[in-house]
Fold this protein.
Amino acid sequence: MVAEDRRLRLAGYEIYRFGGWELTAPGGRQLLESFFTSLLARHQKPAL
């Protein structure tokens, strides 16, 4: 997995990793919702 992360980063991709415990622990759903809300806001196209 680590070697694949390096390969993807060199190809210009952003890598976001989550641990299994983060997703299955209480609050995992909220963690994902918050992360993707922030990610989408970061990459939002400017208004025309």
About this structure: Residues 2-41 form one domain. DSSP finds three helices and no strands in the chain.
